[in-house]
């Protein structure tokens, strides 16, 4: 039996009466109460709170297990995050004080304890240049640069503290910034790290400020994560529905919204099967709530079998006023398109509004599954006005948007777990859409690559002949990646100057991170040489993807020991 769009539509219709918008919203509100930084006690509290919700009806066909992975169970290249607990933080200038209880993102995640420190604030704009920190000794450094690089260079220069800000956020929002450096780097630096809103940062330069962080740092953190299972009745595909639960309080859209949608999908599917409205699928459906990257890597490295994954990350804010639509991001080729196709047909069947189909993108837990060769798609709303800030609160969230995400995830997961899902029609639609978008923007090279190379990777006939005269504009070699998830903070911890170079090459935006590091690493791990990687990247994202820039990043990673160039 071959399952197609009509089967997803039938599952969506059957599940519709079981998915409750405000039940999902109440889960979201409960999660936002916890300050759930990776390595913190609040993360464990959030996991336990959701476990209680899932176990509240013991009659449902839902098996729930809480896990805690030790650092030794993670792959050698996975990030090592220390235990961290914060009790307070404060920033005082011109007689006004800001505190952690009013601004939960005031302390950078994993900041060492320190203070009270009172000193002149000096702004460093050329954050990548060690010489720009010459005036930092005995002062507080203010910068909008990447926090891991700025923190390491400021401490080395003798600064007393670091304050980071994000000029792209609305003026009153304090950003969420995490250092994500190993314990030795944090304790070796020994300075407190805080954040400021952009409006406050504009007043800080040249003033005297008083700052402090009351925190503790421990050894490498154990990673708590939650697994809920709807057991299958046969040997069909095993489908994972994933959301990351870690984030500072409140973290409503990022990512209490994904957690709420996944919990609601689990409850609704269980109720529909328990009532007889749906029969149990052939394969298992597992719902995973994890600390981002670390949790999904822990589950996969421990041998958890998964055939398809759906990653639900930021799905609760309605579009408008700077907030964007819901986006569906398929796996990178040559992985299959089944999870993206199932979500696409579910959104179509629901009649969801304000959503788009996009090229693949990185930056969340679907990367871990794709890196392991497991096709994983992401449902994600972007842009988000208050992304990574203390203003990401529950009052921004639409219960109906949570319902749409939960219903789409439940219907897609159920159909995939039945087995025999055919995504060939979606592959044709998707590759034509990418080619047409490039052509509409006048990018004829990318359009031709999407119409030829991209379609061939998906087993389709090309729409036109591949461009025979295409050559990369850099002296390419083959590259073997030692890690599928190379994080810039790991390079910074090893060598801050290399970290600064890598950050400058990648750029500060998400696009640079996607195009020039994570996605090429995954594609290379899947067996594509770097020449092929470049062609695929241009086919997906446009001919503006620079071979020279990607090659520079590879050379820095080679110096850091993260990749090996042959």
Provide keyphrases for this structure:
566 residues; Aminopeptidase; seven-stranded mixed beta sheet
What do these coordinates show?
The chain has three domains: 5-79 and 222-422, Aminopeptidase (3-Layer(aba) Sandwich); 82-219, Glucose Oxidase, domain 1; 425-565, no CATH class. A hairpin with a 2-residue loop joins β2 (82-93) and β3 (96-99). It has 18 helices and 17 strands. The chain has helices spanning 5-16, 21-31, 41-54, 147-156, 183-189, 198-204, 252-275, 294-301, 338-350, 366-371, 399-418, 424-440, 444-457, 488-494, 496-506, 510-525, 530-541, 547-559; strands at 63-69, 82-93, 96-99, 114-123, 140-143, 161-164, 193-195, 208-220, 223-230, 239-244, 285-290, 308-312, 326-329, 355-357, 376-381, 479-481, 563-565. Helix content is 39%, strand content 18%. With 566 residues, it is of the alpha/beta class. The model has no long low-confidence stretch (mean pLDDT 90). The longest helix is centred in the middle third of the chain and has 24 residues, at 252-275. The strands form three sheets. Strands 1-9-11-10-12-15-13-14 form an eight-stranded mixed beta sheet, with helices on both faces. Strands 3-2-8-4-5-6-7 form a seven-stranded mixed beta sheet, covered by helices on one side. Strands 16-17 form a two-stranded antiparallel sheet. It is globular, with a radius of gyration of 23 Å.
Distance between the termini: 46 Å
Order of strands across the widest beta sheet? 1-9-11-10-12-15-13-14
CATH superfamily label of the largest domain: Zn peptidases
As a whole number of angstroms, the C-alpha radius of gyration is: 23 Å
CATH architecture identity of the largest domain: 3-Layer(aba) Sandwich
Number of domains: 3
The dominant shape is: globular
What proportion of the residues is helical, as a percent range?
A: 25-40%
Write down the overall mean pLDDT: 90
How much of the residues is beta strand, in percent?
15-25%
- Reported by name, the CATH topology of the largest domain is Aminopeptidase
Low-confidence stretches: none
CATH class of the largest domain: Alpha Beta
Strand-pairing-aware structural class: alpha/beta
The main sheet comes to: 8 strands, mixed
């Amino acid at each position: 039996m071959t399952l197609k769009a009509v089967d997803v539509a039938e599952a969506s219709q059957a599940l519709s009466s079981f998915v409750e918008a405000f039940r999902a919203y109440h889960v979201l509100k409960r999660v936002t109460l916890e300050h759930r930084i990776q390595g913190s006690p609040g993360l464990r509290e959030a996991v336990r709170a959701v476990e209680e919700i899932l176990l509240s009806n013991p009659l449902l066909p839902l098996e729930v297990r809480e896990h805690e992975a030790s650092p030794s169970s993670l792959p050698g290249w996975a990030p090592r995050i220390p235990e961290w607990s914060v009790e307070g933080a404060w920033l005082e200038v011109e007689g006004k004080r800001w505190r952690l209880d009013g601004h939960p993102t005031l302390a950078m995640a994993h900041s060492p304890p320190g203070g009270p420190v009172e000193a002149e604030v000096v702004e460093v704009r050329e954050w990548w240049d060690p010489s720009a920190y010459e005036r930092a000794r005995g002062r507080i450094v203010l910068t909008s640069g990447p926090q891991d690089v700025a923190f390491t260079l400021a401490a080395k220069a003798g600064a007393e503290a670091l304050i980071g800000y994000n000029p792209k956020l609305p003026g009153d929002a304090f950003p969420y910034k995490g250092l994500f450096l190993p314990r030795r780097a944090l304790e070796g630096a020994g300075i407190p790290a805080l954040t400021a809103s952009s409006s406050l940062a504009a007043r800080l330069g040249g003033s005297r400020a008083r700052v402090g962080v009351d925190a503790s740092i421990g050894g490498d953190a154990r990673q708590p994560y939650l697994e809920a299972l709807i057991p299958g009745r046969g040997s069909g595909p095993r489908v994972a529905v994933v959301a990351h639960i870690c984030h500072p309080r409140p973290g409503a859209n990022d990512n209490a919204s994904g957690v709420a949608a996944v919990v609601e999908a689990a409850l609704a599917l269980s109720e529909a099967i328990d009532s007889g409205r749906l029969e149990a699928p052939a394969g298992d459906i597992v719902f995973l709530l994890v600390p981002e990257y670390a949790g999904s890597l822990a589950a996969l490295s421990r041998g958890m079998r998964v055939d398809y994954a759906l990653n639900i990350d930021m799905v609760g804010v309605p579009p408008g006023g700077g907030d964007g639509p819901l986006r569906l991001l398929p796996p990178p080729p040559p992985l299959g398109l089944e999870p993206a196709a199932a979500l696409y047909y579910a959104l179509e069947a629901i009649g969801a509004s304000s959503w788009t189909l996009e090229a693949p993108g990185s930056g969340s837990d679907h990367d871990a599954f794709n890196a392991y060769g497991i096709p994983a798609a992401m449902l994600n709303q972007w842009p988000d006005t208050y992304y990574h800030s203390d203003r990401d609160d529950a009052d921004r969230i639409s219960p109906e948007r949570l319902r749409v995400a939960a219903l789409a995830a439940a219907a897609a997961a159920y159909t995939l777990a039945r087995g025999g899902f055919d995504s060939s029609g979606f592959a044709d639609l998707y590759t034509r859409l990418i080619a047409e978008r490039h052509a509409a923007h006048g990018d004829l090279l990318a359009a031709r690559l999407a119409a030829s190379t991209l379609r061939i990777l998906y087993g389709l006939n090309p729409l036109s002949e591949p461009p025979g005269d295409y050559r990369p504009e850099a002296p390419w070699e083959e590259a073997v990646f030692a890690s599928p998830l190379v994080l810039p903070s790991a390079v910074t911890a090893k060598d801050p100057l290399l970290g600064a170079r890598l950050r400058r090459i990648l750029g500060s935006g998400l696009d640079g991170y996607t195009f020039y590091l994570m996605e090429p690493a995954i594609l290379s791990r899947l067996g594509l040489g770097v020449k092929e990687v470049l062609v695929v990247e241009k086919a997906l994202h446009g001919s503006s993807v620079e071979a020279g820039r990607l090659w520079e990043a590879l050379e820095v990673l080679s110096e850091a020991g993260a990749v090996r160039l042959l």
